[in-house]
Amino acid sequence: MEYELAVIGAGPAGFSAGIYAGRAGINTVVFDKGNGGGLAAIAPNIENYAGFESITGVELVEKMRKHAEKYSDLHMYEEVISIKKNNKDFTIETTNDKYKVGAVLLAVGTDHRKLDVPGEKEFTGRGVSYCATCDGFFFKGKNVAVIGGGNTALIESIYLKQVGCKTVYVIHRRDKLRAEKAYEDEAVEKGIQILFNKIVKQINGDELVKSLTLKDAKTNEELELPIDGIFVSIGVIPQNELAKQLKVKLTDQGYIIVDPQMRTNIRGVYAAGDITGGLRQVVTAVAEGAIAALSSTEVLGKSYPY
């Protein structure tokens, strides 16, 4: 089967790319190993996407899906296994079939690094979050904990204090933070409580999160910390396996390097969304997907429509 453009990943960037490419007259297929939506789909509420004062991640993603399917073929639950660059095109092998395409757009995103402790999966969306910017406002006046010790964890803790969380803890498994001292100083100045040498053993609750079970890394003593919200900030994992197959250049952190037109170092290969690093917001992913889709016209013999 042949298409002009293959978009790998059906999150906000991928759906946006499908819309813009299809409207530009590009015969486009969008693949996703699951039902699409990416990390946006697990956001309980999104209140910072223009046009929607409040909308669940699932609802927003479903609107994007319905929009995209008007302009592109959506192949959900069809995982891309390999991509091979030929002289003038690419061969894509999926769990279902093989395809010839003229250009590839990697919108594969990232995955949150997990704690892998009891209760984490059960309470995701019910007190456990991986994005303070997305969900912090919903914990105004409540007690929250940020798990992690890097810059992102400290920045998120400061943000949570700014949006009105009552008590903010930073829980770190070591005796020293990895974050820059300036962030640590600001956190302490704002009254954020930093708990060192504490390992998360379990997340407890009923319908919602109620507490954390922590173990002291030095004494092995366990304690239960009453808490309403938990923000896991121990990093994300770029989904860059396909990029590596294509010999696409990556940053030291594993993100795809792109120019302002979302081109990679491999002609005909573009990238958009969280896989390029940056803010990891729906609005930026949608913008990058549009730019990448229209940039692909240069290798597909299409005229730029704008």
Count of individual beta strands: 17
Helix-strand makeup class: alpha/beta
Helix content: 10-25%
Shape verdict: elongated
Number of domains: 2
CATH architecture of the largest domain: 3-Layer(bba) Sandwich
The CATH topology of the largest domain turns out to be FAD/NAD(P)-binding domain
What would CATH call the class of the largest domain? Alpha Beta
The fraction of residues in strands falls at: 25-35%
What is the CA-CA span between the terminal residues? 29 Å
Specify Rg, calculated over alpha carbons: 21 Å
- Tell me about the largest β-sheet: 7 strands, mixed
Total number of helices: 8
Q: What is the H-and-E element order? A: EHEHEEEEEEHEHEHEEEEEEHEHH
Please characterize this protein's 3D structure:
With 306 residues, the protein is of the alpha/beta class. The protein folds into two domains: 175 residues, FAD/NAD(P)-binding domain (3-Layer(bba) Sandwich), CATH 3.50.50.60; 119 residues, FAD/NAD(P)-binding domain (3-Layer(bba) Sandwich). The chain is 24% helix and 28% strand. It contains eight helices and 17 strands. A hairpin with a 3-residue loop joins β12 and β13. α1 runs parallel beside α2, α1 packs parallel to α7 and α4 runs parallel beside α5. The chain is elongated and about 65 Å long. The two termini are 29 Å apart.
